[in-house]
Amino acid sequence: MLKQLHTLKTQDSLTYITLLKVAGWTSLVIVSIAVLGYYLLVHQIITVSEPHLSRPAGLIAQLIIAASFGALSITLGILYIVMHRHITKPLTQFLIAMRRVGDNNFNIQLDDQRKDELGQLAIAFKAMASTLSERENQLLDYANELEQHSQELLQAKELAETANRTKNQFIANMSHELRTPLNAIIGYSEMLQEDAEDIGQDNFAADLRKIHAAGKHLLGLINDVLDISKIEAGKMELYTETFDLNDMLKEVLTTVQPLIDRQNNTLTTHYPPNLGPIHADLTKLRQCLLNLLSNASKFTEHGTIQFQVIRNSQSLQPETIQFQITDTGIGMTQDQVDKLFQAFTQADASTTRKYGGTGLGLVITKRFIEMMGGHIQVSSQFGYGSSFTFHIPTQVTPTQKVNSAKSSDIQELEKETVAQGIILVIDDDPAVRELFHNHLSKLGYQVAVASGGDEGLRLARKLRPDAITLDVMMPGMDGWMVLSALKTDPELAEIPIIMVTMVEEKQLGYSLGAADYLIKPVNREQLNTVLNKYHIHSQVPQIMLVEDEPTTRQMMVTVLKKAGCEVVTAENGRIALEKLTQFQPDLILLDLMMPEMDGFEFATHLHEHEVWRTIPIVVLTAKDITHEDRDKLNHYVQNIFQKGAYQKDKLLSEIRTLLRKNTLNKRRKMLNKMP
User: Can you give the pTM of this predicted structure?
Assistant: First the structure.
């Protein structure tokens, strides 16, 4: 069709023909006008010279004029017909064709047999329409393919999201399923170890220590794998808090010291005694330090490990803390350093065979440090040792965290059992304080001691003890002054005061409000007899244990009963709610992942009940707690312990602290109700 555009002749074009026709008709009109003009001229002459000829001449002139107008009209009509046929009609067809093309209808009818410009235009328009039709079909094909690819991408996205959810669920389930039995293994081995030591079975105790150590080691490996899985999945989160750096360092060094001693290494520390507070993720920072110090000790034998901490304060930059661990161990080559922070990679195969491990500790350490806004560097010389240095800001970006009640700073109360009563011993003689502490602890009491009257009053106001033993002869504030101060304080006046002294002033003591008066020396039986009069033992702490796993449930019952608690168990949240209608415990120990009603729903129901919401809740779970989980539990629970990862002493200490606070709150309410 396009070839026809090149074969058209100029003389056959629309413009050429139209111009010829217009020229012809125009010539005719001009001739007619000329004739008419000639006639009028002749008529004028005749009219002037021969008047008798004017009438016929006028008629003839009128006929000529009429004929001229008629000819002109016919010419215009012919021109209209020609224009309509050759221009207007084809253009109307083009307009219709363009509208159809605009509506994606390429079935058009145009006269392409004409030998003029409109014929050429028709040929070109049809060619364009054919091209557009082909492009439209291609676009439709592309659109169909794109839609198919979009559907495939959508399906792939849904499959990826499903796989991600499945992976996350798998990690959560693995965390629960692996940590739950390990919690039982570690817990029972620890309990049996204590029993074996009590009955003198040292051989069994040694074997049980090995089981306990193996369980802790296995738990560490599982935690590493789960941590790296959460890091790679982007699910690892920070939980920041403000804590004293020196206290944390002391705890870390105490934990790592046995490993250092086992390798016959020497640990030297270099940091000031007042590093001050830091706001960071305590658990992750502690894990980083433990990983680096453990690695340094593992790859060093009969060597030295240096641990240095510096607080960097610069006016133009944020304040940071620098930690440096340097050892005199086997060291690394540059190639080994380059592969150091790759997951599941150690220095080389021989290192793995000799020293063991998964190679995850340093990877996790690096990721944790980077999450807290810091960075880590390593320098090493093969055969001479390695040095790891990392910095983190003193103010790590805070995140929401569950409220956690911390235990008191009174070291005397950090003991293994949950006693039924608190006794405060006020005596300036350290031998008496130690003796009373031992006597009363064996009787099952919690014991706090004070070396003077001022300290005794401070502890009395803080602890609200169930009874106080008070010496008379003390420097500064003597016993009589302390007794008067206690009895004049409305919040302390009801506490039984037992005077234990060498001074025989019973009448004065009783007159000032003493409940009993003992003359030193005093033995355990005397103390027990006097204290029993005030029924301090009468209230045994009642704990509800909500746990679905039978082995863990039985182990925790044993631990709590050994600690002097009365335990009521429930297999899930629904059963626990039913039992709460019958009695109200002093504390609830709660698992989160349970059938029928899990721990989250149970905590919500508990918070909605006006009476039950005051019961303290401690979560003991194998689930990895996320920000979303903490938001659900926020303001509902007092603390969260990870199964297998917690220390029994810390759990019991937390339970004891919460029980004491709960008891004090009950006492305050009773005092407020008194007239």
Answer: 0.43
Residue 326 has pLDDT above 90, yes or no: yes
Q: What is the pLDDT, as a whole number, of residue 76?
A: 65
Residues 6+ positions from 443 with CB-CB distance below 8 Å: 524, 527, 528, 531
Using pLDDT thresholds of 50, 70 and 90, give the confidence band for residue 9. very low
Structure confidence at residue 425 (pLDDT): 92
Q: Are strands 587-590 and 542-546 parallel, antiparallel or unpaired?
A: parallel
Torsional sign, CA 163, 166, 172, 175: negative
CA distances from 418 to 184, 441, 521, 533 (A): 21, 10, 28, 21
Upper half-sphere CA count for residue 310 (Cβ side, 13 Å): 10
CB-CB contact of 450 with 426 (8 Å): yes
Helices (H), 339-385: 349-355, 361-371
What pLDDT digit, counting tens, does each position of 158-207 carry? Answer: 887 777 777 666 666 666 667 677 777 777 777 787 777 777 777 777 77
Instruction: Provide CB contacts within 8 A for 646, sequence distance 6+.
Output: 620
DSSP state of 624: P
Label the pairing between strands 542-546 and 566-570. parallel
Render pLDDT for 332-354 as a digit per residue (tens, 0 to 9). Answer: 887 778 777 765 555 444 444 44
Q: What tokens were used for 291?
A: 């990983």
List the strands of the sheet with 375-381, edge to edge. Answer: 266-270, 304-314, 317-327, 385-393, 375-381
Question: C-alpha angle 657/661/665, rounded to 5°?
Answer: 170
Tokens of 107: 């079935």
Residues 6+ positions from 136 with CB-CB distance below 8 Å: 104, 106
Report, in angstroms and rounded to the nearest whole number, the Rg of the chain calculated over CA atoms: 50
| Strands in 440-493 per DSSP E | 446-450, 467-470
Helix (H, G, I), strand (E, B) or coil at 436: helix
258 to 116, 294, 307, 328, 360: CA distances (angstroms): 106, 10, 16, 18, 22
3-class DSSP assignment, residue 535 = coil
User: By the 8 A CB rule, do 127 and 101 touch?
Assistant: no
